[in-house]
């Protein structure tokens, strides 16, 4: 039998329990995206949050699926080159390289030295352009829109050079099987008239590289030296080396975790072994290091371009290839160091003008795998910072 | 729930608190005093390079209605129609020749992805790139440029730019 005193006690317990239930809120499902400015496109994150902490995150992708692999099956090789520019539109030229090299290897053609050097210079220019975009978008996501102006200003110089050679700023469509083909202003008379780098390109490149180095110093002061940015990035989103390897990260994200793996040193798709450059690694694998790796890589790319421009070999731009390009039966996988990581094309050719099947391994898609692990336990404001630091493009994720 | 993770590396803290902020502000201030790099677009314009792919120009005289461009176009945005006419023989007693006459040559710039394949495959020098870019329209239908409009662009086609350094001897096979 309960006495009134006991009942009072019981009532007290109940009220206490009610209070603690009120404090212990239920987990909430928060949809970040698909229309969110900081998700770089249409990525949707289904986050289960407990207060300000993220319990689990599930990325939902595919909003921008355009079916590149299927489109490639009904297009000739020359048409696919124009298509693959659009996979990762921030680094259009770098997307073409592995595809063209894979097709060339199947055909047994090798591009002449000069063509390979021009390919290399332009790939590195697109790497600079891509990393400058990162250095403007990442601080902007942290709330600092000023670096955007500085980074885009110098990127414009690089894009002008690219446009002068290829005719396109974003989508150069410049590689042909067996060499490169500078876009001509004067119609198809280009067939009889040699089309090469336009006058002033080398001089302009040297000037642009000086400007790019200069803006790197500026951005280092402006972004990396900024105390607020440091507090938002240091020690946040830490990705240890073993986890990075486990999740098949590639590119600058992997190197920021301290793994010195760079396909430019490993593979031989372009003559990188002729040039002297360092593989930039950082020890910690946090947001700050991912930002820093990219800044240093701009400097390394500028170094490669300067060396390449100094020792540009002469000679033809095109190897001898038949007019109607038919790739012999077989399959080939070529991977290359895209600005965002490893990009590879597996071409299966049935021997015709069109490939039988093209499998695209894109860097951003594979780098996104780590998101559920990386975002677990993060604060909601840090989610955006971590997302931004991974540097993905949704076109590259969904293809 | 949360896995505690911490960065073990060195922390880049400046000696004087706020020195990093000050350096950034100093850069902003210096840039504030510089001349702007932007151009005021409708009043002043940037000149695109000669090779810029702005719009496609057509030389009607050179076109032989071979349809190569329409076939090679990756997004099938070129529409060509033509008919054949009988030509009198060049010398008396010769064989009468047929010649193709271009009736319709439309490029739908709403579909075009500016890859330049048509310009490249044209065997008769009928298509050219022009760096002209100011042809935006209020409706998609206005972006379908017909034969006459494409011919007008021909006047804006520049000479190919001078080349850098040594001339390659190979060229296109």
Walkthrough of the structure:
- The complex is a heterodimer of chains A (399) and B (173).
- By secondary structure, chain A is an alpha+beta fold.
- Helices cover 50% and strands 12% of the residues of chain A.
- Chain A is built from 16 helices and eight strands.
- Chain A has helices spanning 4-23, 68-73, 77-84, 92-107, 113-142, 146-166, 201-224, 227-233, 241-246, 252-256, 263-266, 287-310, 363-368, 371-375, 380-390, 394-398; strands spanning 28-32, 44-50, 53-60, 175-176, 179-180, 330-338, 341-349, 355-361.
- Chain A has a three-stranded antiparallel sheet. A three-stranded antiparallel sheet of chain A has the order 6-7-8.
- In chain A, helix 7 runs antiparallel to helix 12 (287-310).
- The N and C termini of chain A lie far apart (72 Å).
- Chain B is of the alpha+beta class.
- Chain B has a domain at 55-156: Alpha-Beta Plaits (2-Layer Sandwich), CATH 3.30.70.
- Chain B contains four helices and five strands, in the order H-E-H-E-E-H-E-E-H.
- In chain B, the strands form two sheets. Chain B has a three-stranded antiparallel sheet.
- Chain B is elongated and about 100 Å long.
- Chain B starts with 18 loop residues before the first helix and ends in a 21-residue tail after the last helix.
- Residues 1-11 and 166-173 of chain B have low confidence and may be disordered.
- Classes of the chains: A alpha+beta (399), B alpha+beta (173).
- Chains A and B meet through helix 3, helix 6, helix 7 and helix 8 of A and helix 1, helix 3 and strand 4 of B.
Salient structural properties:
heterodimer, A: 399 residues, alpha+beta, 3-stranded antiparallel sheet, 8 strands, 50% helix, B: 173 residues, Alpha-Beta Plaits, two-stranded antiparallel sheet, 4 helices, 18% helix, elongated, disordered N terminus, disordered C terminus
Set down the secondary structure blueprint.
The complex is a heterodimer of chains A (399) and B (173).
Chain A: H1 4-23, E1 28-32, E2 44-50, E3 53-60, H2 68-73, H3 77-84, H4 92-107, H5 113-142, H6 146-166, E4 175-176, E5 179-180, H7 201-224, H8 227-233, H9 241-246, H10 252-256, H11 263-266, H12 287-310, E6 330-338, E7 341-349, E8 355-361, H13 363-368, H14 371-375, H15 380-390, H16 394-398
Antiparallel strand pairs in A: 1-2, 2-3, 4-5, 6-7, 7-8
Helix pairs in contact in A: 3-4, 4-5, 5-6, 5-12, 5-15, 6-7, 7-12, 12-15
Chain B: H1 19-33, E1 55-58, H2 68-72, E2 78-87, E3 97-108, H3 117-121, E4 127-130, E5 144-145, H4 147-152
Antiparallel strand pairs in B: 1-4, 2-3, 3-5
């Amino acid at each position: 039998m309960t006495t009134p005193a006991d009942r009072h006690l019981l009532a007290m317990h109940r009220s206490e329990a009610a209070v603690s239930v009120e404090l212990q809120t239920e987990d909430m499902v928060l949809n970040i995206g698909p229309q969110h400015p900081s998700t770089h496109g249409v990525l949707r994150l289904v986050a289960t949050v407990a207060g300000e902490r993220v319990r689990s995150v599930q990325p939902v992708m595919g909003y921008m699926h355009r079916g590149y692999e299927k489109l490639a099956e009904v297009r000739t090789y020359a048409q696919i080159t124009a298509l693959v520019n659009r996979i990762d539109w921030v680094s259009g030229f770098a997307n073409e390289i592995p595809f063209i090299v894979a097709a060339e290897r199947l055909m047994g053609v090798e591009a002449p030295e000069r063509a390979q050097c021009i390919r290399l210079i332009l790939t590195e220019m697109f790497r600079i352009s891509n990393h400058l975009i990162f250095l403007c978008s990442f601080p902007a996501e942290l709330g600092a829109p000023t670096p955007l102006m500085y980074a885009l200003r110098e990127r414009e110089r690089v894009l002008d050079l690219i446009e002068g050679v290829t005719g396109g700023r974003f989508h150069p469509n410049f590689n042909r099987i067996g060499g490169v083909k500078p876009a001509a202003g004067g119609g198809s008379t280009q067939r009889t008239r040699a089309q090469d780098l336009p006058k002033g390109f080398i001089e302009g490149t040297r000037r642009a590289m000086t400007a790019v180095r200069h803006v790197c110093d500026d951005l280092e002061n402006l972004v990396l030296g900024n105390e607020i940015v440091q507090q938002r990035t240091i020690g946040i989103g830490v990705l240890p080396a073993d986890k990075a390897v486990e999740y098949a990260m590639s590119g600058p994200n992997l190197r920021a975790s301290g793994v010195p793996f760079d396909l430019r040193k490993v593979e031989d798709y372009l003559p990188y072994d002729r040039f002297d450059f360092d593989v930039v690694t950082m020890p910690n694998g946090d947001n700050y290091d991912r930002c820093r790796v990219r800044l240093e890589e701009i400097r390394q790319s500028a170094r490669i371009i300067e060396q390449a421009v100094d020792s540009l070999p002469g000679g033809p731009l095109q190897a001898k290839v038949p007019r109607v390009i038919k790739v012999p039966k077989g399959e080939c996988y070529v991977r290359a160091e895209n600005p965002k990581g490893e990009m590879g094309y597996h071409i299966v050719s049935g021997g015709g003008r069109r490939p039988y099947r093209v499998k695209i391994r894109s860097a951003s898609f594979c780098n996104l795998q780590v998101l559920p692990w990386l975002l677990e336990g993060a604060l909601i404001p840090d989610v955006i910072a971590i997302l931004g630091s991974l540097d993905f493009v949704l076109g590259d994720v969904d293809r | 729930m949360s896995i505690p993770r911490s960065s073990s590396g060195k922390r880049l803290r400046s000696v004087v608190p706020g020195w990093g902020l000050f350096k950034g502000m100093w850069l902003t201030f210096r840039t504030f005093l510089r001349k702007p790099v932007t151009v005021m677009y409708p009043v002043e314009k940037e000149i695109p390079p000669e090779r810029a792919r702005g719009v496609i120009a057509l030389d009607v005289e050179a076109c032989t209605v071979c349809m190569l461009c329409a076939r090679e176009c990756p997004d099938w945005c070129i529409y060509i129609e033509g008919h054949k006419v009988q030509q009198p023989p060049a010398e008396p007693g010769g064989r009468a020749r047929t010649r193709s006459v271009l009736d319709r040559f439309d490029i739908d710039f709403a579909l075009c992805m500016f890859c330049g394949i048509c310009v490249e495959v044209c065997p008769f020098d009928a298509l050219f790139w022009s760096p002209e870019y100011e042809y935006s329209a209020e409706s998609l239908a206005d972006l379908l440029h017909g034969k006459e409009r494409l011919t007008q662009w021909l006047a804006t086609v520049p000479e190919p730019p001078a080349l850098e350094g040594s001339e390659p001897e190979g060229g296109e096979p």
